[in-house]
Every structure is written in C-alpha cells, then in structure tokens.
Amino acid sequence: MEQLKQAIRDIPDFPKAGIVFKDITPMLSNPETLAQCINAFKDRYAGKGIDTVVGVEARGFIFGAALALSLGCGFTMIRKPGKLPYKTFQETYSLEYGTDTIEIHQDAIQTGQKVLVIDDVLATGGTVNAAASLLKNNFECEILEAAFVMELGFLNGRDKLGGLPVFSLITY
Quick one: which of 2, 18, 51, 136 could link to 113 by a disulfide (CB 3.0–4.6 Å)? Predict the structure, then answer.
C-alpha cells in the first residue's frame, strides 16, 4: 500500500485555507497504481458472494465500477438528487452547515442481495452513513462492508457508522 500512498498527493489549502486535500488523480492516471488499488479490493472481496457493488457519487463510481467488473457482479450508483432517470428513494442527512440528499433507483437492489458500498475517502462519515441508511431503509439486503481507498482517521468517521464494518486501503 506504500506505493498507493505515495501516489496520492497533498494539496494544501484546498478547497479552503487550513485543509490538506488528498488528491487521488495521480494514482488514477498511473495504470500500475490504479490496478494495485482495484486488485487489493478484489483480493479482499473475491469469493464473498457480492451481488452488487454500490458506488457513492462521484469518485465511488470509479472504484466501484472497476471492482464490480473484476468480481463479475453488478454495479449500482448512489447519486445526488435529480441525476437518476427512474423512480428513486432518497435519504437526506445533516452536514456541518445544512443538509444534503442522495438517491438510488427503487429497483437497484433485489431482496436478499449482498452489497458492498465503496467510495474514495472516509472522512466524517456522513455520506456513507446516509448511503447505508438509504440501503437499509428501502431494501432487504445485506451490507457486507463499506470500503474506501483512504480513511482520514483523525476525523473519526467510522464512529458514526453504527457498527457497519469498514475497510480502508490507506489510513491517515
């Protein structure tokens, strides 16, 4: 994982002063580190009976679609409101200064399916907690785990996930 960690660059003061943004674009542009990332997830989840990988907008789509393809399972998107063309379920959640909403197609998950939720980063946990709630409240499915390329451990995001199992390739 050290090679992956080195491929993620720090951008100071982005998107605002005092924040050090972890930029994954160098990792994505290098076929070796991108393959290493996807293969690490594949090694963990192969043989677990996952029916669909659920990617959270937007960078979760990158990792989720590639992982679903490598596992031979489906891929499902959780998106911001108004981006999905069919009937949706919604989940609104609190942010530091307001609220946000995410959606999923009403026919995205079948009864009894095993799902894996994936995104690029676990920070405060708000978005993935909302994604898990969206799945639990609207589908009879089993969420095996929430997976992330990186976790900002100092923000204690996993503490807000109500015991949902979490796996991160890299922790800062």
Answer: 51
- The rounded distance, in Å, linking the Cα atoms of 111 and 89 is 15
Q: Are 61 and 37 in contact (CB under 8 A)?
A: no
Residue 138 in tokens: 């609207």
Enumerate residues 6+ apart whose C-beta is below 8 A from 65: 53, 55, 75
Written as six digits, the tokens of 45 are: 């989840």
Q: Do residues 106 and 124 make contact, with C-beta atoms less than 8 angstroms apart?
A: no
**CA dihedral sign of residues 151, 155, 156, 157:** negative
Q: Sort 84 into a burial class: Cβ within 10 Å, 0-12 / 13-18 / 19+.
A: middle
Residue 167: which of 24, 3, 78, 37 has the closest Cα? Answer: 37
Give the residue numbers marked as catalytic. Answer: 59, 96
Radius of gyration of the chain (CA): 16
What would the pLDDT profile of 53-105 be if each residue is shown by its tens digit? Answer: 999 999 999 999 999 999 999 999 999 999 999 999 999 998 877 899 999 99
The DSSP code for 93 is E
Name the token pair of 133: 């709630």
